[in-house]
């Protein structure tokens, strides 16, 4: 296994992405004139980058080790350091919702764990959210791939604005080439509620690499914390996940590989400020995948089948023994499969690369009617076929493709079964011109579609509803569609890289929770176009002694603000107008030690909140801009031992965090409107054996 520092990864990503065409094939394989300086090798299974863009823009890769060591186990902060990406990460909840270019939730961004779409959402009252809620332990994350715009292959099925895939630790992360065993132990302690985090993982493989296996367990204990003004969350606040991960691999020949993955995530957390109810959640999943590459240029086949069950419950417990929501529960069962193949055909002076396949995924939400709250029961199934082609000639790269996405929704209204379905053919085009070995420019156009969800079409009532209500359903909802244009320029050479992307997405039939023409409030299709546009800038350098990177987003996201924004906690995921992350550091002890500092700027934003339980009206609250400073450092003491430390919010500044919902709005009906986390110190070690 080879591991590169963040600046080195960013440089190689840029140079490779400058040679990636719309069909996601590295063009170094298309024409010998195009040279990629190095192979991308991150902490993860080799060649395991699964989320790829169709727009011509780069796929950002986040290193899992740096999430732990430099970002204090905060996945949300790491994602926000990516230009064009943001998160909704409630201050008192472990969930993460990825926002790309102003769009989030309901599948607008296909957020995955090891390729499984995370569709769970709970709008069953206090602390509920219309957002897709992702639960995962950062101790097991080895990388995250973030694709902005139209997305290739199965990952792009039904996605409107992009995709994010969080990858868990694999056998090759623990066992070096030529070895048969390996393992990792990671332990950290922190202040301000970040009490302890621990991960233990081990793997074995046969001498010839025919078979291998992995087992890992990870978890952390987080308790009450203070914001920058010294205000502390409730003494009952807690977040205590435990995750068990197992993987098996079998290679009967050099051409064929089978993998099996099983994971069980359990957590009991108490978002006392935003919810006031204890949550018990469990995520169980199984993945079986296959790769077959016999060396024939026409065959490079991959297949995957997956199942996941995500459940929640509001139990009694310390600090919570009464309340009308106690006992509410639900399960979201996900099933999916996909099959794809890549073929290479020699044509004229170059190679024509083809990528094609089929994909299916479904999520079936079920709940007891008496405890459903506002959660609507039903099933959304999505299926599709895709075909993309890439070709390079001279200094030009060209690509294009089509995909047909189809969806079906099934639920019950007033005791009658209701089914809705539709489909759409979408196309994409891209062209890239290489000015020289360092500079390239590109332009692209892509169409995408997102199906309405069970939540939107069959919404069953307000937050305090105790049984289903047909008043707020809307079986006539239409799918959202988007036309996205991009123009970009990339530069890369040894030790220096930069890139800029200008994008605009025009969305038709945008779905919003709003008053309908009959005077009832329900999810409706907004009239006219909703436009999301902006510019994304990234740059960095890496020398023998110093390193640094910059990401800057200047956004103008015009998502309509509902008169009922905030009803059900947060129906509104607008990005800040602008945000940036500047990272600068120094290498010491011949590169074995690194120290660095980070500046995080977040511009003005707004958050949705309740105003009245009587009529379920809502409003938005403006949040001021803020700038935070972080410090981090690491020391590779020996081949196996690394020590690390980080300080978040060094100056203990008080701020209202963008995109966190009611817990930080300052005008919440629940709790005291606590601000973002105050100064937090984290000390840890990673030992590999």
From TrEMBL:
Signal peptide residues are 1-31
Check the record and name the PROSITE patterns matching this protein. TONB_DEPENDENT_REC_1, TONB_DEPENDENT_REC_3
The protein's superkingdom reads Bacteria
What keyword terms does UniProt attach to this protein?
Cell outer membrane, Membrane, Receptor, Signal, TonB box, Transmembrane, Transmembrane beta strand, Transport
InterPro entries given in the database record = Beta-barrel_TonB, Beta-barrel_TonB_sf, Plug_dom, Plug_dom_sf, TonB-dep_rcpt-like, TonB_box_CS, TonB_haem/Hb_rcpt
Bilayer topology reads: Multi-pass membrane protein
Where does it reside?
A: Cell outer membrane
Q: Which GO terms describe its cellular component?
A: cell outer membrane
Q: Which GO molecular function terms does the record list? A: heme transmembrane transporter activity; siderophore uptake transmembrane transporter activity
Every copy of the TonB-dependent receptor plug domain together lies at 57-163
Q: Does the keyword Ribonucleoprotein apply?
A: no
One record GO biological process: siderophore transmembrane transport
Metal-binding: present as a keyword of the record? no
Question: Pfam families, alphabetically?
Answer: Plug, TonB_dep_Rec_b-barrel
Q: What is its main location?
A: membrane
List residues of the TonB-dependent receptor-like beta-barrel domain.
247-650
Q: Where is this motif: TonB box?
A: 39-45
Protein family according to the UniProt entry: Belongs to the TonB-dependent receptor family.
PANTHER family from the xrefs?
HEMOGLOBIN AND HEMOGLOBIN-HAPTOGLOBIN-BINDING PROTEIN 1-RELATED, TONB-DEPENDENT OUTER MEMBRANE RECEPTOR
Name of protein: Hemoglobin/transferrin/lactoferrin receptor protein
Organism for this UniProt entry: Celeribacter halophilus
């Amino acid at each position: 296994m080879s591991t590169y520092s963040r600046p080195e990864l960013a440089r190689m990503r840029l140079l490779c992405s400058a040679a990636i065409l719309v069909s996601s094939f590295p063009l170094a394989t298309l024409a010998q004139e195009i040279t990629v300086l190095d192979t991308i090798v991150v902490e993860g299974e080799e060649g395991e980058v699964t989320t790829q863009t169709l727009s011509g823009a780069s796929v950002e890769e986040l290193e899992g080790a740096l999430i732990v060591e430099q970002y204090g186990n905060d996945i949300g902060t790491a994602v926000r350091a990516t230009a064009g990406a943001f998160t909704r990460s409630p201050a008192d909840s472990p969930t993460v919702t990825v926002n790309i270019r102003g769009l989030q939730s309901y599948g607008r961004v296909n957020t995955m764990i090891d390729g499984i779409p995370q569709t769970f959402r709970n709008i069953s009252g206090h602390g509920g959210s219309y957002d897709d809620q992702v639960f995962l332990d950062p101790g097991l994350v080895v990388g995250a791939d973030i694709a902005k715009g139209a997305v290739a292959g199965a990952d792009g099925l039904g996605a409107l604005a992009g995709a994010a895939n969080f990858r868990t630790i694999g056998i090759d992360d623990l066992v070096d080439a030529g070895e048969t065993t390996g393992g990792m132990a990671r332990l950290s302690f922190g202040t301000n509620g970040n009490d302890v985090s621990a991960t233990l993982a081990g793997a074995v493989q046969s001498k010839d690499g025919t078979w291998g296996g992995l087992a890992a367990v990870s978890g952390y204990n987080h308790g009450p914390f203070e914001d920058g003004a010294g205000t502390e969350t409730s003494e009952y606040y807690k977040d205590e996940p435990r995750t068990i991960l197992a993987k098996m691999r079998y290679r009967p020949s050099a051409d064929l590989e089978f993998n099996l993955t099983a994971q069980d995530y359990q957590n009991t957390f108490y978002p006392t400020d935003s919810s006031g109810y204890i949550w018990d959640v469990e995520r169980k999943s199984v993945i079986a995948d296959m790769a077959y590459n016999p060396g024939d240029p026409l065959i490079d086949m991959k297949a995957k089948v997956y199942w996941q069950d995500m459940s929640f419950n509001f139990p009694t417990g310390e600090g919570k023994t009464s309340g009308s929501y106690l006992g509410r529960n639900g399960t979201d069962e996900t099933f999916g499969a996909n099959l794809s193949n890549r073929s290479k055909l020699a044509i004229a002076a170059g190679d024509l690369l083809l990528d094609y396949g089929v994909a299916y995924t479904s999520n079936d939400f079920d709940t007891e009617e008496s405890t459903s709250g506002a959660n609507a029961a039903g099933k959304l199934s999505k299926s599709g076929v895709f075909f993309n082609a890439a070709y390079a000639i001279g200094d030009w790269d060209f690509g294009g493709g089509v995909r047909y996405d189809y969806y079906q929704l099934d639920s019950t209204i007033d005791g009658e079964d209701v089914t809705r379905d539709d489909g759409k053919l979408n196309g994409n085009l891209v062209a890239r011109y290489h000015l020289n070995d360092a500079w390239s420019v590109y332009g692209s156009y892509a169409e995408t579609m997102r199906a309405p969800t069970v939540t939107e079409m069959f919404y069953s009532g307000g937050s305090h509803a105790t049984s289903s209500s047909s008043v707020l359903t809307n079986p006539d909802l239409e799918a959202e569609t988007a036309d996205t244009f991009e123009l970009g320029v990339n530069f890369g050479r040894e030790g220096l890289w930069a890139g800029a992307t200008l994008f605009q997405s025009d969305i038709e039939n945008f779905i919003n929770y709003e008053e309908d023409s009959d005077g009832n409030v329900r999810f409706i299709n907004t009239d006219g176009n909703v436009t999301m546009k902006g510019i994304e800038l990234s740059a960095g350098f890496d020398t023998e002694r110093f390193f640094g990177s910059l990401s800057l987003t200047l956004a103008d996201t015009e998502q309509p603000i509902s008169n009922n924004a905030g009803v059900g906690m947060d129906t509104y995921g607008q990005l800040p107008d602008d945000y940036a992350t500047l990272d600068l550091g120094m290498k010491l002890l011949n590169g074995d030690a690194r120290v660095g500092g980070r500046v995080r700027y977040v511009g003005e934003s707004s958050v949705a909140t309740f105003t009245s339980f009587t009529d379920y009206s809502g409003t938005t609250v403006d949040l001021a801009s803020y700038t935070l400073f972080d410090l981090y450092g690491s020391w590779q003491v020996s081949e196996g031992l690394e020590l690390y430390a980080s300080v978040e919010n060094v100056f203990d500044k008080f701020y209202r965090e963008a995109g966190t919902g009611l817990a930080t709005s300052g005008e919440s009906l629940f709790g005291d409107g606590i601000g973002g986390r105050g100064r937090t110190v984290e000390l840890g070690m990673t030992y590999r054996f």
